[in-house]
Amino acid sequence: MHFRLLSPLRVVQRLNTDNKKLASNQINDIFVTTTGITYIATNDGMLIGSGDKWTLEERYLNFVGVDAWGTNLWILGDDFLWQVDAKGKWSPIAIELKNVEGQLRDIAVDDEGRVWIASNMMTGYDVAADKYQRFGPGQYFTSQFVNCLDVDKDGSIWTGTKDKGLYLIQWESSLIISIENDNPLDCRSNEPIASLTTKVAGGQPPYTYKWKHRSTTADISKLPKGEYVLTVTDAKAAVKTGKYQILDPSIKATVTQLSPSSGQPDGSATVSSNGGSGQYIYQWDNDEPNITATKLTAGLHTLTVSDKSGCSTTATITISENLTPLSVLITVVSDNKCDYSTNGSLKAEVKGGKAPFKYNWSTNAGAANTLTSLASGNYKLTVTDATGQTSTANVTLNSPPAFSASIELLFPATANESNGQA
Question: What highest taxon heads this organism's lineage (predicted)?
């Protein structure tokens, strides 16, 4: 599992009635234009500006929300709607009161320039055509408490309410296309068995369908892999295009070496996969189960990639080897405590090279990395690794000097007496 550490947050500025031209500390909405100008909607005017330059427009009016389309801003307040052009000119827009109900709560503008207003009902206003479309109980919009709204890329309105959850509303002339694959391709067969089903919402029925290079029906079948493009036209000549990519069910995997082996199982490699269901399971020949293997020995390795549909493929990689030079160090574990004793022991430590290692001691005392029951003297070790590299080390096993004693005569003994001293 990977975690990304985020930088700590800090407050860099606070705007209020004490240090700016704000007449109220109640902020209802904030909008920043593409040119960097900030509009702050309050219940006592609209604060506009950037940096240290701010102006308060329309003091004493309660502003609810701000949105933009092109170079024009749309500003909503209590019972009023304004349009602000690129030069900052404010133009009032007369809203027919019969098309809204109660308190105005939020505003959004779609990609066609249509203004959406939330009150006790939802109202769409096509400014260019001067046309309204209302959504209330008659259109199954039963909430009178809208909290927020926004427009998606298809021009549909997502409306959050206080009491009835979330509504998705579409302008009556907008077309929404949904394409689904009902029968995915099978990796165990080369037959073109995929089928696409189309659902259309919005616009004015009946619809006509035209698939690129194919039929004119809503649903098509017996399809191989590839991209399919559908154009739908409604009775009023509104046109919408949709696309669907039928994936190749076979899995393709490419393995890349990340680092060589150093003579130990420490080589690494990773795999890039595509096709299939896209949800992959990895199994390396050393039982590592991840997309990246980090315990690979030098030589050929095999990876199996499978998906939830049971499709699988194998890929291979040859891990190269980057050996460090072979070296050996002999350590005296214990010296002999007395001359002529055989209690000494030595241990050899090998670095670099490639296992397994062969040990050749000069005394022929053994072929392991440790020797015991040794007499004092000089010892030489030659180590050979699996690639033929050799390294030699020498050591002297010491013992204390041989014990000796001498006698000094102090006083000779008298005749027939034992009184001599030495």
Answer: Bacteria
